[in-house]
Write a structure and sequence with these properties.
heterodimer; A: about 575 residues; alpha+beta; Penicillin-binding protein 2a (Domain 2); Beta-lactamase; five-stranded antiparallel beta sheet; B: about 350 residues; mainly alpha; two-stranded antiparallel sheet; about 70% helix; globular
Chain lengths: ~575, ~350
């Protein structure tokens, strides 16, 4: 059979090829490869992963890459850790202990460069260059840093970058993430990291005996990731941040017609360009990374009266002009229930009870409606459930079981019930647009560097709630009067009709002395709602929150009339419960 | 002692296939021992490999008197089991390239076993059939095609290539006509753009990097350059056992698996390489001999498949470390670390040994 013979010839031919190839590499080219091997001088150095740009809805840049210089070392080339640490701690203002620990640590691959300090200043670079002969294995390497033009203003929205953690690495290994990669650790940077992240660049270099770069063998340019456009309006974001000022709290602005988030601010904030400083929990006990808008779970307080009112009117428990007398105090079984106004509101109907946020009125009708009905309505409006906003770590809030809740407390939004500010913003938007519950969202579109549309988020209608038209009219009128003459009067803006509701969150109704959180939700203009706002202040009052929301709306709708208003707080309306 | 040596020399001269394999395995253990003592100590895999050799040896004792012909009817059952396992890894694989099924302390790699199973199934199917008939050729293509696609999808390009070689080898010995071969070739050219289109980026990148390694100076280009430096720096006589500097310093991440040949070349030099290559050549020639003497078609085809499998691994593995073949990532049988690969190799030589034995018993 000739066929086996062919296999044999085939094999023999390739055996010759292999031996000849080895002869070429090992005998003819031996001096060349031997030199390379004794010098151990080929290193690969990654120069970072370029990321896409994040824009606001009008094309203003919210995050971009910029070149930076990093201080790095290659463990294999390091000679005298003590001496190197000495020099570097002087030049770069780094802790010597930290340096020695970092330099002498056992690395899995001694040829992988290790970053000692990011973003060196020009002075540091020149000092290092001067001392380079004393620093074997240490060098300054070009890298990439992320720049956030709006700094603290957009910190919670965009998040920040940080080194990939072990658990993240295990999850993302399949997608090409590697140890030491810098990835989005919160906010938009995290949610859309896969899109933003580009392809790492690097160089292959020959180094000299001191581990310093001699000759570049090969270079791979990094390829930036895709660009992202957000629904955020940087101008409104700035306004919101400025108006919130130094107060702890948060503000979110949404378009009630489709769920687009226009601004999202939480305070205290952090500088995404200087994360290491803020990650130190001892120095920052106030938790600067906590995004109150989506993670803060508080009792909704009087804002819940919106639900109570709709439930009461729709079930026919009360008619528009039915009146109840508020004497400031009320006895239910053996408990005493107070209205926030000690002397009472007198005889009020629903048209006055909402603007004045009368607890006795709403407590009374709430008891008539019943706990299970109130809970049913709260669930109908998707309270106590994540809204599905495209930010990481949204908290659900909590709607109690009928057995846990007491109708009196529940009807004024106290007790075990909790909601997040974004849920309340969604609620007021639903009232504004007449029953549509839109999913709040931040991403508008993702566009590749070639200009292809990779992803586009369309407004997502979570559900439509039927609200009785008559009840809705009464509710809206009441909300308008909240700002016109009620508890939210400080939100009033000349020339703009605003509808809103104040709320004060408290830990327990019995401990009136505890500090409260003030909240205000609103929308404007009244007839054709375009903007919905929530302002929330830790340890503040709801009129203060109303004032912030009012100023924001004013600057959005009447921008030319920016005038310094006197800050004196006349006639402080302190709403309790 | 002298008698023992004489006995061993005799067995070598008699070209006992199992004996020759064990020389290769012994060679592998020595190399692996050296490879396990680097700046990154990997003694764990050395010990595991010894354990696998032990388990393989138990198989040799159990099956050494077995009759390979009984495999003919069992092969279809194996075939469906392996298809099932390959499908499982595809959906629930471990690691970046989903090739393994985790079983406690070791990872089971069905694609390694698939090679042997495909050889058995195709041989069983083709024995006493005429491949020149279109329906037979077509069904043979299906038998290889399904597991081929499954491993290709994993993606495991190296094993996929081995499947093609197994098909070509067996069909060639089974008497495929030149006309059929040419039409298959044209068909392959016709669908290759399609394959290119469904290839993963990293697979395309490997082929492009092969043409120009500096396309990826941090990855493949670096691997290839380091591989060449390692081999070239070995020179005529090598740096000496355990004295390799390149492999010890862990320039190459996979020098104990796919790049194990670098360790041989660096530490034993050109002389060591020639001895090793000739030893392998001797081993492969022995398989060719078994093909010729096999009395049954089934045995002939199985031996051919196994020959192609070993020769393919050997040539492609060395080719890629030497920079004359794309880096596709397949092990060097008997030498590279890897339990699945070793067990399959040992099972294959047990089968060969049985084919040889039954060809002389008539």
């Amino acid at each position: 059979m000739g066929r086996e013979l062919f296999l044999k010839r085939f094999l023999t031919f390739f055996i010759y090829v292999i031996i000849l190839r080895c002869f070429y590499l090992q005998i003819i080219r031996f001096p060349y490869y031997y030199q390379l091997s004794i010098k151990n001088c080929i290193r690969t150095i990654e120069t970072g992963i370029p990321r896409g740009i994040i824009y606001d809805r009008n094309g203003r840049i919210l995050a971009k890459d910029a070149p930076s210089a990093n201080l790095v070392f290659v463990p294999y080339d390091l000679k005298n850790a003590e001496k190197v640490a000495d020099i570097l701690s002087n030049i770069c203002n780094l802790d010597k202990e930290y340096l020695i620990k970092k330099l002498t640590k056992k690395y899995i691959n001694p040829f992988d460069r290790v970053i000692l300090k990011r973003d060196l200043s020009a002075k540091e670079i020149s000092l290092i260059e001067e001392n380079l002969y004393n620093l074997p294995g240490v060098f300054v390497q070009e890298g990439i840093k992320r720049v956030y033009p709006f700094g603290k203003e957009t910190a919670h929205l965009l998040g920040y970058l940080g080194e990939i953690s072990q658990s993240q690495l295990e999850k993302l290994k399949d997608k090409g993430y590697e140890m030491g990669d810098y990835i989005g650790q919160d906010g938009i940077e995290k949610v859309y990291d896969e899109y933003l992240r580009g392809i790492p660049g690097g160089i292959q270099v020959e180094v000299d005996a001191l581990g310093h770069q001699r000759r570049v063998w090969g270079k791979k340019e990094g390829i930036p990731g895709n660009d992202i456009f957000l629904t955020i309006d940087a101008t409104i974001q700035e306004i919101a941040y400025e108006e919130l000022g130094d107060r702890k709290g948060c503000v979110a602005v949404m378009d009630p017609r489709n769920g687009e988030i226009l601004a999202l601010v939480s305070n205290p904030s952090f500088d995404p360009g200087n994360i290491v400083f803020y990650l130190d929990e001892k120095r920052h006990p106030e938790k600067p990374f906590f995004n109150r808008v989506i993670k803060g779970q508080y009792p909704p307080g009087s804002i819940f009266k919106i639900i109570t009112e709709i439930a009461a009117l729709e079930t026919g428990t009360i008619k528009e002009f039915d009146r109840i007398e508020c004497t400031g105090v009320m006895e239910v079984s053996d408990r005493i229930f107070h209205c926030w106004k000690e002397e009472g509101h007198g005889w009020v109907d629903i048209n006055l009870a909402l603007p004045f946020s009368c607890n006795i009125f709403f407590g009374t009708i709430g008891m008539k409606v019943g706990v299970s009905k109130l809970i049913e309505y709260a669930k109908k409006f998707e309270l106590g459930k994540p809204t599905g906003i495209d930010l990481p770590g949204e908290a659900p809030g909590y709607i109690p079981e009928p057995s846990e809740a007491d109708p009196l407390n529940l009807s004024i939004g106290q007790g075990p019930i909790t909601t997040t500010p974004i849920q309340l913003l969604s609620l007021i938007s639903t009232v504004a647009n007449g029953g549509n519950i839109w999913q709040p969202f931040i991403l508008k579109k993702i566009i590749s560097k070639k200009g292809e549309m990779l992803k586009e988020l369309q407004p997502n209608l979570r559900k439509t709630v039927y609200i009785d038209q008559e009840a809705l009219e009464i509710l809206r009128k009441g909300l308008k009067n909240v700002v016109e003459f009620g508890t939210g009067v400080r939100a009033k803006v000349e020339g703009l009709e605003i509808a809103g509701k104040t709320g004060t969150a408290q830990r327990a109704a019995t401990e009136l002395e505890l500090p409260t959180h003030g909240a205000f939700v609103c929308y404007a203009p009244f007839d054709t709602p375009k903007i919905a706002v929530i302002a929330f202040i830790d340890y503040g009052s709801s009129p203060q929150a109303a004032e912030i929301a009012g100023r924001i709306l004013k600057r959005i709708f009447i921008p030319e009339k920016i005038e310094e208003e006197n800050e004196t707080e006349t006639e402080i309306y302190d709403e309790q419960i | 002692m002298r008698q023992k040596l004489k006995y061993m020399m005799n067995r070598f001269k008699e070209r006992d296939i199992i004996f020759i394999s064990y020389i290769l395995i012994f060679f592998g253990v020595i190399i692996l021992f050296s490879a396990s003592k680097g700046v990154i100590t990997k003694e764990g895999f050395f010990i595991k490999q010894i354990l696998w050799i032990f388990i393989g040896t138990i198989f040799v004792y159990i099956f050494k008197n077995g009759d390979y012909r009984s495999l003919e009817k069992w092969s279809y059952l194996f075939y469906f089991i392996i298809l099932f396992l390959l499908t499982i890894v595809l959906f629930k694989g471990e690691g970046r390239a989903s090739r393994w099924i985790g079983l406690g302390w070791f990872y089971f790699q069905p694609s390694e076993f698939a090679k042997l199973v495909v050889i058995l199934t195709l041989s069983s199917f083709l024995s006493n059939k005429d491949i020149r008939r279109f329906s037979v050729l077509f069904l043979s293509l299906i038998i290889v095609g399904i597991p081929f696609l499954l491993v290709f999808k994993q993606p495991n390009l190296g094993t996929a290539i081995i499947f093609i070689l197994i098909f070509l080898g067996i069909s060639y010995i089974a008497g495929i006509t030149r006309k059929q071969l040419i039409s298959l070739f044209l068909f392959a050219i016709f669908i290759s753009p399609l394959i290119w289109a469904i290839m993963k980026d990293y697979q395309r990148e490997r082929i492009l990097t092969f043409l120009n390694p500096m396309r990826d100076p941090l990855g493949k280009g670096y691997n290839l350059l380091q591989s060449k430096i390692t081999i070239g720096s070995g020179g005529l006589i090598g740096k000496g056992f355990m004295k390799g500097t390149q492999t010890k310093l862990a320039f190459l991440p996979e020098y104990h698996t796919d790049f194990i040949f670098c360790v041989i070349a660096e530490e034993f030099g050109f002389i060591g390489v020639v001895i090793f290559v000739l030893l392998y050549f001797y081993f492969l020639n022995k398989i060719l001999e078994i093909i010729s003497i096999s009395k049954t078609e089934f045995g002939k085809y199985v031996a051919t498949g196994i020959f192609v499998m070993f020769a393919g691994h050997f040539l492609i593995n060395l080719g890629m470390t030497l920079g004359i073949f794309p880096i596709v990532g397949i092990p060097l049988p008997f030498i590279s670390y890897g339990g699945s690969s070793l067990i399959v190799s040992i099972l294959s030589i047990i089968i060969l040994s049985s084919i040889e034995k039954y060809s002389t018993l008539f």
